[in-house]
TrEMBL record, chain A:
This is DNA-directed RNA polymerase III subunit RPC3. Component of the RNA polymerase III (Pol III) complex consisting of 17 subunits. Residues 132-142 have a biased composition (Low complexity). The keyword Secreted does not apply. InterPro entries: POLR3C_WHD (IPR055207), RNA_pol_III_RPC82-rel_HTH (IPR013197), RNA_pol_III_Rpc82_C (IPR008806), RPC3 (IPR039748), WH-like_DNA-bd_sf (IPR036388). Residues 128-149, 166-201 are annotated as: Disordered. DNA-dependent RNA polymerase catalyzes the transcription of DNA into RNA using the four ribonucleoside triphosphates as substrates. Specific core component of RNA polymerase III which synthesizes small RNAs, such as 5S rRNA and tRNAs. PANTHER family: DNA-DIRECTED RNA POLYMERASE III SUBUNIT RPC3, RNA POLYMERASE III DNA DIRECTED -RELATED.
Automatic annotation (TrEMBL), chain B:
Signal peptide: none annotated. DNA-dependent RNA polymerase catalyzes the transcription of DNA into RNA using the four ribonucleoside triphosphates as substrates. Specific peripheric component of RNA polymerase III which synthesizes small RNAs, such as 5S rRNA and tRNAs. PANTHER family: RNA POLYMERASE III DNA DIRECTED , 39KD SUBUNIT-RELATED. Its main location: nucleus. Component of the RNA polymerase III complex consisting of 17 subunits: a ten-subunit horseshoe-shaped catalytic core composed of POLR3A/RPC1, POLR3B/RPC2, POLR1C/RPAC1, POLR1D/RPAC2, POLR3K/RPC10, POLR2E/RPABC1, POLR2F/RPABC2, POLR2H/RPABC3, POLR2K/RPABC4 and POLR2L/RPABC5; a mobile stalk composed of two subunits POLR3H/RPC8 and CRCP/RPC9, protruding from the core and functioning primarily in transcription initiation; and additional subunits homologous to general transcription factors of the RNA polymerase II machinery, POLR3C/RPC3-POLR3F/RPC6-POLR3G/RPC7 heterotrimer required for transcription initiation and POLR3D/RPC4-POLR3E/RPC5 heterodimer involved in both transcription initiation and termination. Pfam families: RNA_pol_Rpc34. This is DNA-directed RNA polymerase III subunit RPC6. Keywords: DNA-directed RNA polymerase, Nucleus, Transcription.
């Protein structure tokens, strides 16, 4: 856990859940798993409050518990889950675009349940692990904490329920940007007396599935940028077919035959089989190497190189950052080093066609910011500088981690700035809220036009302007947080995928 | 009756020399003493030797050793006129410079090869330069170094840097212009493979604007080398400028000094203030 990550976690927890949860959460992120007593004593909060805080954390899937060997329970909070809070708006937006928006209108149960079933079928929501049935002998001591189990095949199956005649229910406004509801619990019907058939079944959002979806989106848009719309549609089809068959951190999708792809193309695209084959061949031969050919049966078997694609996207992100920060000539040198791995000073100048003085300057600047590093190769055992080769190189993984750290700090800065701006204008905000409340109540009691206008004028024009600019500021910072989160997602996916790939190597 | 003595014809020394020269021209690879003897049987060894020595000292003949004995070869007439009046040391230095070809040779290397002291070398070099037999060319690799080569030779690419250098200065504007032009040319989707501007195209690749593929081509198609051909096409970047650089923090020069409560903090960041006013 880097400092930046911990800071960001604490900011997020504070903003969404309050001081106490923030204190407990940050403590657990920093120190790892701790038993209840230790948490109480170290953070200096009362047992009651600690319990409540832990409940909140576990409810929102930020914290977990584990039974240790000695018999006590340790609670822990995972930093990566807390950082996912940043992504909630993106999840909600994705769900809206895929399955339709409610627009705040009333929905009846059938619509809700059908949408829900669709979400479960595509694995966007999954069942929470539940308490196992008490099958063992009852005389054995009950464990200090239940071990939750879930059967693989039950994870996405929605139990059949009879919901006809339950009446309409207004869907609560969930357009809140700081979407807090993580577990879509099926509310118990207050009317009926007997418990509904799916009592005890709780649902949660399947984060990994959303991440998979974002990754697929990024790959498809990269293909669309590099080639054309049709190729990106083909790649999208291939990814859609592999959605439920490939695990989220696999390096390749399952091989798909060209015939299958042809059958699964969306209805609007009527390209011939031959054309599809040509496209697939082109995609497989492209220097990008997103698609690879793995065999010839079934008209050609093709896979999507997920790891390769993530690496390309991460590299492109790095290049874009270098370009914006240092200029396009530095970017040229950076890309040159990425391609050729190790180069001497002189060779860099020759290949990039940049005069010696400028090239030296740029290389040193990038070196000081840790985008490139030097590799020494001594010619003599005494490592004399005049007899040593100094080679410049780019270490992609290290640079990615460094930039990831910078992203986290940037988001923390943005959040702090937003809070600062809100605090500065607190007085004004409160005043405007009061005015609105008065207006609303007066409208309800049927006041006259003149009176309403009088109330509105309580807020002067410059104040109104100030409010406008505040709104504009907050929106801008919010949008910016989401944009940085996109970068975080790409870089973090690449790091995770590389770590997994390295672990798999014998 | 008195014996008539046939006075042996004393051949004119100049005649001998001219005949030898003619012979040399006839046999440009060189002639041995034996050949001269056969041609001019009325000259004796001493006359031959004298003539050959004279020709050698005049610089019209080259003396070479082969496994058949000594060979005499006619020297290039252009040079012979120039080298008149030079002494042996100069000739030696000239030979060394000539051997260096179009890469030229540094004065220190001349000294090592000829074993002459530095002062002598400098005098000789100045002499040769004034006679316009050699010239000094500044090397682009080390700007203080001067290499010497024969006057009429074209300096090698490695010395002058090739097309991209003019007078030892990197022609960066030239490179930039070509860079832009090539890019525009490629954007109009013409497939192109030219050896000469391959380096410029490589810089475009490093700019991320162009990609290259190698295809197998028939021998004889324009631009194919060893059965392969390089094709270039203009491409778009695969992602838009990334989110981090759209915030002030991504480009901030004092990022590492910034923390809440310090001199530089998110709350009083001037870059953010400016950015928020857009």
């Amino acid at each position: 856990m880097t400092q930046a990550e911990i800071k960001l976690c604490s900011l997020l927890l504070q903003e969404h859940f309050g001081e106490i949860v923030e204190k407990i959460g940050t403590y657990l992120v920093r120190t790892g798993g701790q038993p209840l007593r230790v948490i109480v004593s170290d953070t200096g909060t009362s047992l009651d409050q600690v319990k409540k805080a832990l409940c909140v954390l576990i409810q929102h899937n930020l914290g977990t518990y584990q039974i240790q060997k000695r018999g006590f329970v340790e609670y822990s909070v995972q930093c990566s889950r807390v950082l996912c809070i940043l992504r909630y708006p993106r999840y909600i937006y994705t769900a809206k675009t895929l399955y339709g928006d409610t627009d705040g209108k009333t929905m009846d149960y059938t619509e809700v349940s059908s949408t829900f079933v669709r979400l479960a079928d595509t694995h966007f929501v999954q069942r929470c692990p539940g308490v196992p049935d008490a099958s063992g002998p009852s005389d054995s001591a009950a464990p200090p904490a239940p071990t939750l189990v879930i059967d693989e095949k039950d994870m996405y199956s929605v139990p059949r329920l009879n919901l006809i005649g339950k009446g309409k229910r207004r869907r609560s406004c969930d357009d809140d940007d700081n979407g807090e509801h993580k577990a879509k619990k099926q509310k118990q019907d207050l009317e009926s007396q007997e418990p509904p058939p799916d009592d005890g079944i709780y649902w949660q959002v399947n984060r990994d599935r959303f991440h998979q979806h974002f990754r697929d989106q990024a790959i498809v848009s990269a293909v669309a940028n590099r080639m054309d719309q049709t190729s990106s549609e083909i790649v999208r089809t291939m990814l859609r077919m592999s959605e439920v068959t490939t695990s989220s951190n696999a390096a390749y999708t399952q091989p798909l035959s060209s015939n299958e792809i042809f059958r699964s193309l969306p209805a609007g695209y009527n390209i011939g089989k031959q054309v599809l084959d040509q496209y697939l061949t082109l995609l497989a031969d492209d220097p990008l190497e997103f698609i690879g050919k793995s065999g010839d049966s079934g008209g050609g078997m093709y896979v999507v190189n997920l790891h390769k694609a993530l690496a390309s996207l991460a590299t492109a992100t790095l290049e874009s950052i270098v370009q914006e920060r240092f200029g396009s000539r530095c970017a040229r040198i950076f890309r040159l080093l990425l391609r050729k791995k190790h180069l001497e000073q002189k060779q860099v100048e020759d290949f990039a066609m940049i005069p010696a003085k400028e090239a030296k300057d740029m290389l040193y600047k990038m070196l000081s910011e840790n985008f490139v590093s030097l590799q020494e190769i001594p010619k003599t055992p005494d490592h004399a500088p005049s007899r040593t080769f100094y080679l410049y190189t780019v270490n992609v993984l290290a640079s990615t981690r460094m930039l990831l750290h910078r992203c986290y700090k940037s988001v923390a800065n943005l959040i702090e700035r937003r809070q600062y701006e809100t605090r500065e204008n607190k007085r004004l905000l409160e005043k405007s809220q009061r005015v609105e409340a008065i207006l609303a109540s007066m409208q309800a009691t049927g006041a006259e036009e003149v009176q309403l206008q009088e109330i509105e004028e309580m807020i002067t024009a410059p104040e109104r302007q100030q409010l406008e600019s505040l709104k504009h500021t907050v929106n801008k910072i919010d949008a910016s947080e989401n944009q940085v989160d996109e970068t975080i997602f790409l870089l973090a996916s690449y790091v995770d995928s590389t770590v997994v790939a390295a672990a798999k190597k014998p | 009756m008195a014996e008539v003595k046939v006075k042996p014809e004393v051949p004119d020394p100049l005649d001998v020399e001219n005949r030898i020269i003619e012979l040399c021209h006839q046999f440009p690879h060189g002639i041995t003493d034996q050949v001269i003897q056969n041609e001019m049987p009325h000259t004796d060894a001493q006359q031959r030797a004298m003539a050959i020595n004279r020709l050698l000292s005049m610089g019209q003949l080259d003396l070479l050793r082969s496994n058949a004995g000594l060979l005499y070869r006619v020297k290039d007439s252009q040079n012979t006129s120039k080298m008149k009046g030079s002494d042996n040391q100069e000739k030696l230095v000239y030979q060394i410079i000539e051997d260096a070809g179009n890469k030229g040779i540094w004065s220190r290397d001349i000294r090592y090869k000829s074993n002459l002291p530095l002062t002598e070398i400098n005098k000789i070099l100045k002499n040769l330069e004034s006679k316009k037999l050699i010239k000094a060319v500044k090397s682009v690799a080390a700007s203080k170094k001067k290499v010497y080569m024969l006057y009429n030779l074209q300096p090698d690419r490695s010395v002058t840097g090739g097309a991209w250098y003019s007078d030892q200065d990197f022609e960066s504007e030239f490179v930039e212009v070509l860079n832009q032009q090539c890019f525009k040319f490629l954007q109009s989707k013409v497939e192109l493979s030219m050896e000469d501007i391959e380096t410029i195209l490589n810089t475009l690749i490093y700019d991320g604007k162009v990609e290259m593929t190698i295809i197998a081509a028939k021998e004889g198609t324009v631009g194919s080398v060893d059965g392969q051909m390089k094709l270039y096409r203009a491409v778009n970047p695969i992602i838009q400028p990334t989110g981090l650089v759209r915030t002030p923090c991504g480009l901030c020069p004092v990022f590492d000094d910034c923390h809440e409560g310090g001199e530089i903090s998110p709350s009083n960041c001037i870059y953010m203030t400016e950015w928020l006013e857009f």
